[in-house]
Amino acid sequence: MAITTGICPSPNQPPPLPTLSLPTLTPLKTNLPFPSSKFGANLVSNDALVNGAAAEAVALARAVAVVTRDAAAVRVGSSEVWSCNESGNYESGGGMMVRRKKRRRRRKGLECFDDEERKMELEDGRFSFGVVRYGYLSPREEAECCMSLKEGAKLESERTRVTEAQEHEPTSKQLANAMRIKMSSIDKVICNRRESQERIIKSYRGLVVSVASSYQGKGLSLQDLIQEGSIGLLRGAEKFDPERGLKLSTYVYWWIRQAIIRAIENKSRIIRLPGHMCGVMAKITKAKISFNQRFQRLPSHDEIAEMINVQASIVRLVCERSRLPLSLDRVVTDQGCMALQDIIRGPDEMMPETMLKKQLMKQEVEKLLNTLSDREAEVLRLHFGLNGDTPQSFEEIGRLLKLSRERVRQINSIALSKLKQTSTLDDLKLYIV
Question: Which of 81, 316, 323, 423 is deepest in the core (most CB within 10 A)?
Fold first, then answer.
């Protein structure tokens, strides 16, 4: 009895396995006595047949197990040889196709960081924005994305117009009626705009990072610069016209740069400076550096003004306003027990003597006003601002009290004449310096 195993050879399959044969089973010899009786002979012969069949089955099962184990070992060895041969063919023939596929994927922007690596880098705090590689969009994809952004911008402008007219946020139905389109089109425009924004930001992130990295150290972190550059990227994509023959990366470069410069001018300082003053300050800084390198000393305001062709007063004003603000809680001693506000004198109004003097003067004025009628006291308080409010004219007081301007003037003059005749007026002369 023999078992043969074979596989038809093919170029994409491993080589055929060798043929294995089972050992031929010899019949089982039994030396049993044959009784003389007919019944006993039949019984013995039947038992012998059963025992022989069982022994033959056990031997066959053992042989099959051995053959199976040998076939598995041969299979493993042949598969290793085949994998080595196939790897050689892969390197020689199919390697170029794989490299081409990788190159196409890289161009289309399909290669990115693995999620686990990105998560680990974010947890470690060493995520690098410049390592992420995405390919630029094709001209057709640029045109589609920019068209979606323009439609989304038109939708937002229409929503703003309807909100200002109705003084509340419009619904999708109202917005569709205002633009004369279907409600499903509104949702489609919003989704397309969001997808286009994500594609443009991912594809041109490297451009934004390269521009933002050149403006580091000017008051904003790299993350803030990248965020502002991405806003400028989307703004430039909305203005992009594919029919002019330009690339989107060439066009949005100036929008990214402008957005970053504006963000530095407006957000890098606690006290904001005007835009033209920021330009003058940059010129002054450059002039200081060049003068110091040439003459080995710091220049004066007049010398800087002569170098940049401006007035010396402007240079002095910009230098004074460009100083960084100091905190009053700043520690001025090595032990840390004294802050800056503890040694700086406050305004004169905050002195205890001045505060007490004002309080006593206010009490004396109230005593004088109590000697007048309620209308006369009210007119004096409103006209001179004795309650701490802004002084008002006779016409304004008349509209407030529903009196004519002449009548208010008469009440004021009568009240002042009464106060001049009182004896408590001399108490106020003590506060006149």
Answer: 316
